[in-house]
């Protein structure tokens, strides 16, 4: 896809300073710009690159003044960074504006879908699947029986959505995501062997949820695993059976949440956090990366840390760790009194 400076200026409501007919077909950093590429200058630290960049078009703030000759065509806008972000969004929309049904695909006779749908090659739609309008299902996606998917949903290549899953509107599901696989449910018998506990529930994902690549969300044993409206999940997260995540919570990569834990609204959870099962995490909780959560957490708490030592030793040490500030104060007072003597 090629765009001229005049077309880009129209999209961004900017003003062309240079050749309106020059065209670009790719994006680049200003220091790595080549002929046919578009870049932007927002940080003053990078200003010196504009005099040598080979990029055909550069987006700049409207008050930019060149102190040396430049060869790149400028598009002047009120805020170069915001304008470039807007352009990226527009570019993605154009790039992803696919419609129609590629071949081969398998669509069950009882499946249905809305207008302006895109189904990529080798997609599978099971019995009674319902997909809304303007959905984009990329190649090699599996959608099991009785799945419901809302409007404006994007499911990228290779995702697997198991039976009975419900997905709301305006969701993004990235490649390699698995939604609705069996939860980790086993019970020991008298011989010390483990028997499978049937997982008969489902997964419910509400509107405006983003799910990163290779994240897994298990179906409930009974009832539903629920991801509330506006949740944003990074790559490679494990969410176990019967977990509930409150609206507008964001979770970074490699976090693991064990079964039946409930996480509140507007929480921020860092990468590689481990949350034990059957816990309740309050609203607006902040958990730093690599923390281990083994207790209920109240609204608004900020937590960090997870020393991996023997369980019994840890419990004993934790009592002293909680009192460490008091112990230090007592020690400092004792030392000060001894010096005075």
UniProtKB/TrEMBL annotation:
<feature type="domain" description="UDP-3-O-[3-hydroxymyristoyl] glucosamine N-acyltransferase non-repeat region">
    <location>
        <begin position="22"/>
        <end position="89"/>
    </location>
</feature>
<keyword id="KW-0443">Lipid metabolism</keyword>
<comment type="subunit">
    <text>Homotrimer.</text>
</comment>
<keyword id="KW-0808">Transferase</keyword>
<dbReference type="GO" id="GO:0103118">
    <property type="term" value="F:UDP-3-O-[(3R)-3-hydroxyacyl]-glucosamine N-acyltransferase activity"/>
</dbReference>
<comment type="function">
    <text>Catalyzes the N-acylation of UDP-3-O-acylglucosamine using 3-hydroxyacyl-ACP as the acyl donor. Is involved in the biosynthesis of lipid A, a phosphorylated glycolipid that anchors the lipopolysaccharide to the outer membrane of the cell.</text>
</comment>
<keyword id="KW-0012">Acyltransferase</keyword>
<keyword id="KW-0444">Lipid biosynthesis</keyword>
<dbReference type="Pfam" id="PF00132">
    <property type="entry name" value="Hexapep"/>
</dbReference>
<keyword id="KW-0441">Lipid A biosynthesis</keyword>
<dbReference type="Pfam" id="PF04613">
    <property type="entry name" value="LpxD"/>
</dbReference>
<comment type="similarity">
    <text>Belongs to the transferase hexapeptide repeat family. LpxD subfamily.</text>
</comment>
<dbReference type="InterPro" id="IPR011004">
    <property type="entry name" value="Trimer_LpxA-like_sf"/>
</dbReference>
<comment type="pathway">
    <text>Bacterial outer membrane biogenesis; LPS lipid A biosynthesis.</text>
</comment>
<dbReference type="InterPro" id="IPR007691">
    <property type="entry name" value="LpxD"/>
</dbReference>
<keyword id="KW-0677">Repeat</keyword>
<dbReference type="InterPro" id="IPR020573">
    <property type="entry name" value="UDP_GlcNAc_AcTrfase_non-rep"/>
</dbReference>
<dbReference type="InterPro" id="IPR001451">
    <property type="entry name" value="Hexapep"/>
</dbReference>
<feature type="active site" description="Proton acceptor">
    <location>
        <position position="241"/>
    </location>
</feature>
<protein>
    <recommendedName>
        <fullName>UDP-3-O-acylglucosamine N-acyltransferase</fullName>
        <ecNumber>2.3.1.191</ecNumber>
    </recommendedName>
</protein>
